[in-house]
Amino acid sequence: MFAIEEINKDPDLLPNITLGFHIYNTYPSDVSTLESSLMWLSGQGLPVPNYHCQKQDKFVAVIGGATSELSVQMATLLELYKYPQISYGPYDPILSDKARFPSIYQLAPKESTLTLGMVQLMVYFNWTWVGLVISDDNKGETFLWNIREEMTRKGVCVTFIEKIPTSEKYTINSHTDIMSRIDRSSANVIVVYGDANSLRTLQYASMPYLILTKVWITTSHWDFTIRPHDSTYNSFNSVLIFSDQTKEIPNFKTFLRTVKPAKYPENILFKRFWNSAFGCPHEHNKPKQDCSQNASLEILPLRFFDMSMSSQSYNIYNAVHAVAWALHQLLLTKSELRDEDSLVMYPWKLNSLLRDVHFNNSAGEQIFMNGKKLSEANYDIKYFVNFLNGTEHMMKVGEFIPQAPHGEDFSINENVIMWNEYYKKIPLSVCSESCGPSYQKSAREGEPICCFDCILCPEGQISNQTDMDQCIMCAEDEYPNGEKNHCLPKMVTFLAYEDPMGMTLACTALVFCLLTLLILGLFVKHQDTPIVKANNRNLSYILLFSLSQCFLSSLLFMGKPTSVTCLLQQTIFGISFTMAVSSILAKTVTVVLAFKATRPGSRSRKWVGSRAPISLILVCSLIQGILCGIWLLVSPPFPDIDPHSEPGHMILKCNEGSLIAFYLVLGYMAFLALASFIVAFLARNLPDTFNETKFITFSMLVFCSVWASFLPTYQSTKGKMMVAVEVFSILSSSASLLCCIFIPKCYVILLRPQWNTQNWINHKSYARRRNDSKAFSHAS
């Protein structure tokens, strides 16, 4: 009505010609649609094929087909006469097939990106558990295929799919069954796709299936506000709508405010709508006050009338103007050619003109009828809410512009959304609650990816976002905080001298080294006494010197590791201990040789007093030195960082380089120690004035026990505690040798000097021989 009046008032468009229109219903059934089309062709209520009874009316085009299905049904008749048919419904690629439908034209933009926008909306609100309700037709199947593919790509799951049967398949219980299944669904967000005809089942949702807690996502093609007028509530009380962007037509709202039934007395449909919307009584009753001429469409609620122009109304407006422009161009052509038949209108002649029609509408937008020039649709995201008190609101809350750069194509202002009484904040529609920071998702076997359990991040990993599929590992120089949602920088640490443990071990090493040197000085001072000369005093000097080096070598394991200290610590430690253990082996061998030399005719006499013990020490030390040299040449120790042993710390340590060489050096020392222990143990009962072999046996027992417990302890500790264990083992094993072998001698030298004389030794020897003789006689 508005478009026709606008054109008739335009002096430059179709001058001296008045446009008119007829309105016919297209019911949602094939039979009714064909009947209405035939009535239009016949020009009377009783359809007569191939006959037109109203010669004064000149029909030139049909604007109709809210859906592609209706357009196809209408075309079965209209294509026979080549009547142009302009579809104002949503774009359908099927209607663009000019081989099948050469006279059908579409104005609606393409909506191939609609599913992308809907899924972006779901992702924005974190709705991952969504139901789908679609019309059971070709367009519904295409939409279902596209949206499921996009939902899968974005990690959104489909909880159920309901297909609304077409009118031919509709039964009296369809809406009851469908709405009951939707009501039972755990999804709080439902996507609805279809038109007012195909989805009319949902319009009659009533108790007991009044679904007030669901959020619906749909398009403007489905008029969800329409419902039976006696219905108090609306199940669709919270709806997000993707509506094709349109420009505002000037003066349209002014036209709506002034339109009255009295202004169009011959328009029966408008009068019926007016009476229904304002609750007017039947014509034979007295009209109510609301039905007076002062009433306005503007006061009607949204469920009856929306003052804003919908996308379909916008297409109808452009379609009327397109027909007028094509007709205007046809009349101009006939006038220039002075066609004698200019007053006769042949509708099929408009087809060639409609294909190329191109004009700017009153809103300034370029309008094309060529399907190849139709662009992708841009969408306004609107929100409709119906509160329980009957208040209704429709507002624009966002946009989806597919052609815009990524990140700018989708926008929404959630602050202006007024959720209904059932939601204090953004509704949730998830299968599983979100996993917060410190947790990661763990998929449930046999269920969709949206259904998961939340498990705590493994050691060394964090999660600083919600719903993370996998926790992230902190960098090597970082470690997780207690909540496992943030990485903190690690502290660099090592066994420093300033640490209480390091200071204690260092002081202990220095004290024992000083004690060793004091004992060495004491032995040098009393070098001519029997107790010092016993068992080769040179061996004692070498043993004391090597023990002092053992104590000092432990200091190389403390402090910040460097290339020099890493190379020296194991080498000096290995050679020093080898000298100490080989000295003990030499002392033990000396005792055995001395005892055997006292026997008549013994060949051991030539070895007593020789340099054989010193040679034994040199050979054993040389072998260890060769092993250490090979180690340093092949795979030497080097400074390294251990970021994993202690949480929150990066341990600076010396990497052994070759573990084989490391354990080979230790194994060689263990072999010498075991050999010394065995020899000393076998010789423990040999006659000896100062009981040297027994002290050596006990000292080697302690020494071997320390290093036997070292290996498992060393392997079970981490970080700087490994270094502390090795230092402790060095100190304790060295201290056992020092104390067990030399402290008894120091006791004699300092506290029992009378025992350290030759007379005392001779007396003890005489007493021992006498006791041995008595024991022999008693045995005989």
UniProtKB/TrEMBL annotation:
Chief localisation class: membrane
Example of a GO MF term: G protein-coupled receptor activity
Gene3D superfamilies reported in the protein's UniProt record: 3.40.50.2300, GPCR, family 3, nine cysteines domain
CDD domains, sorted: 7tmC_V2R_pheromone (cd15283), PBP1_pheromone_receptor (cd06365)
Coiled coil spans: none
InterPro entries attached to this UniProt entry: ANF_lig-bd_rcpt, GPCR_3, GPCR_3_9-Cys_dom, GPCR_3_9-Cys_sf, GPCR_3_C, GPCR_3_Ca_sens_rcpt-rel, GPCR_3_CS, GPCR_3_vmron_rcpt_2
Membrane spanning stretches: 501-524, 539-559, 571-595, 616-634, 660-683, 695-715, 721-743
Gene Ontology annotations for the cellular component aspect, listed alphabetically: plasma membrane
Subcellular locations according to the entry: Cell membrane
One Pfam family, short name: NCD3G
Protein keywords: Cell membrane, G-protein coupled receptor, Glycoprotein, Membrane, Receptor, Signal, Transducer, Transmembrane, Transmembrane helix
Signal sequence bounds: none
Domain G-protein coupled receptors family 3 profile: from-to ranges: 501-765
Membrane topology, from the record: Multi-pass membrane protein
Homology family: Belongs to the G-protein coupled receptor 3 family.
Official protein name in the record: Vomeronasal 2 receptor 594
The organism of origin for this protein: Monodelphis domestica (Gray short-tailed opossum)
Lineage: Eukaryota, Metazoa, Chordata, Craniata, Vertebrata
Name of the gene encoding the protein in the UniProt record: VN2R594
